[in-house]
Write a structure and sequence with these properties.
The complex is a heterodimer of chains A (110) and B (116). By secondary structure, chain A is mostly beta strands. In chain A, strands 2, 4, 5, 9, 10 and 11 form a six-stranded mixed β-sheet that branches. In chain A, a hairpin with a 4-residue loop joins strand 7 and strand 8. Chain A is globular. Chain B has 116 residues and is mainly beta. Chain B has no helices and eleven strands. In chain B, the strands form two sheets. In chain B, strands 2, 4, 5, 6, 9, 10 and 11 form a seven-stranded mixed β-sheet that branches. A four-stranded antiparallel β-sheet of chain B has the order 1-3-8-7, with no helix packed on it. In chain B, a hairpin with a 6-residue loop joins strand 5 and strand 6. Chain B is globular, with a radius of gyration of 13 Å. Chain B starts with a strand and ends with a strand. Classes of the chains: A mainly beta (110), B mainly beta (116).
Chain lengths: 110, 116
Amino acid sequence: GQSLEQPSEVTAVEGAIVQINCTYQTSGFYGLSWYQQHDGGAPTFLSYNALDGLEETGRFSSFLSRSDSYGYLLLQELQMKDSASYFCAVRDNAGNMLTFGGGTRLMVKP
Amino acid sequence: NAGVTQTPKFQVLKTGQSMTLQCAQDMNHNSMYWYRQDPGMGLRLIYYSASEGTTDKGEVPNGYNVSRLNKREFSLRLESAAPSQTSVYFCASSERGGSSGANVLTFGAGSRLTVL
């Protein structure tokens, strides 16, 4: 099976940079994904890493180290609208099931 | 561009009642999923359908059944609702497993279910 660990809560100020870590255990690995969910809303896809290294999408970047079973989501130039929950997720070795971590609640303060 | 549509958005049931949550996607995706999310927690997979005609159990399948009616539609049924099934249910779809697009799930808006 799969298990993922991420911090439950992170607080940062507007304009700052924040990193949300994710460690995973999985019997097979088909990539690490990140999703954002605002309160009362549905999760939306942010990024995906299949290979080691950094993927950048605007203010958001995601990093993966397969040898360490570790990844992180980096949010730069934080804005109030970035206050949300962020979930990492891995796909199983058959490539069918996507398992989510418990989520990190990010609070951005003025 | 509707994406993934779920109905109903809200439902209140009494213990023992049955109901079906409907989900439809218009993105021609092969794979569809049902997740539940409890307050302050992550998403837990109930059932998924890797392709039309197949369904498989996820992490928390007990008390649920699913039907992949066709490529577009994937329904979730609670045969005898219990208070422990009070949750927000999300349907999602993606490209087929094994492709990079399989990691990009598109979610519906969610269905908030309360079982009294």
